[in-house]
Amino acid sequence: MSRRLAGIVLALVACAVQAQVPVRVGSKADNEGAFLGQVILQVLRHEGVPAVDRTQLGPTSIVRRALLNGDLDVYPEYTGNAAFFFHRESDPSFRDAGKAYALAASLDLAANRLVWLTPAPADNHWAIGVRSDVAKREDLHTLRDLARWANGGGDVLLAGSAEFVESDAALPAFQSTYGFSLRGDQLLVLAGGDTSATIKAAAEGISGVNASMVYSTDGAIAITGLTVLADPAHVEMVYQPAPVFREEVLQRYPGVRAPLEAAFRPLTVDVLRRLNARTQIDGEEASKVAADYLRSEGLLK
């Protein structure tokens, strides 16, 4: 065999080996993160891409660091978090879905060679939910309505975590923007950040609680029927989930972009609430919920 031919053979072998390097799929440790990570993992495997399951790795700081360090190849992230990654929390672009995605994608590509695929339409941000009977009685639809009710002497009693009550990005931001203030005796502060506990308190009227901090895609909302109040002033940044890849990995497997974006496209707020309820409330495995979802969308055989 000539040297030239031998070189060609070795190059082809090297390419074949590189093409079979498995993709390491991570996710955050929460239920929704686990589900979204499983969606990515199962789509990759369905497309014939070898993939390693490293979902439910930990909080944002750990998973993000693993991706930046090259210890992960892809994980689902939320567009609004890019504002914190790049210290752009006050940038109004992150309060508009299209602009938030475009800015997150451009910043991360330029700084870190990370590629954000098109996000799901669901926006998972902090919000306030009210018992539906109370919302109907008081004609509550938005946080402006909540302000009217509170300022009119309404019997608001809200359950939330210490972070929600104290963080400048949560209840204080809602109060300053919409012009209301809840007294200490109108707040039930629960340890930890588990929204299922605060939602349960509101839904069941525990200790007179009739309102709760929620994440807008919480599965418990689908079960309890809380009315989630709209945020017309866009106090909260937009948090749409999207697969985020290391660029070199996506270049190795460019064919996965279309099926992954097809898998995220149907994930509206209502769809995610329903799917999250299966893991959060019913205790089903995220892998099973993801497989059922992908089959229902015709994306998995």
Distance between the termini: 45 Å
H and E order: HEHEHEHHEEHHEHHEHEHEEHHHH
Helical proportion, percent range: 40-55%
* CATH fold annotation of the largest domain: D-Maltodextrin-Binding Protein, domain 2
The CATH architecture of the largest domain comes to: 3-Layer(aba) Sandwich
Structural class: alpha/beta
As for the number of domains, it is: 2
Number of helices: 15
Number of E-type strands: 10
The strand line-up of the biggest sheet is: 7-6-8-5-9
Portion in beta strands: 15-25%
In CATH, the homologous superfamily of the largest domain goes by the name Periplasmic binding protein-like II
Mean pLDDT: 92
Rg computed from alpha carbons, rounded to a whole number of angstroms: 22 Å
How would you summarize what this structure contains?
The chain has 301 residues and is α/β, with parallel strands linked by helices.
Give the SSE map.
Elements: H1 3-19, E1 23-28, H2 31-46, E2 51-58, H3 60-68, E3 74-78, H4 81-85, H5 97-112, E4 114-116, E5 126-130, H6 132-138, H7 143-151, E6 158-161, H8 162-166, H9 171-178, E7 187-190, H10 195-204, E8 211-215, H11 219-224, E9 227-228, E10 241-246, H12 247-252, H13 257-264, H14 269-280, H15 286-296
Parallel strand pairs: 1-2, 6-7, 6-8
Antiparallel strand pairs: 3-10, 4-10, 5-8, 5-9
Helix pairs in contact: 2-13, 2-15
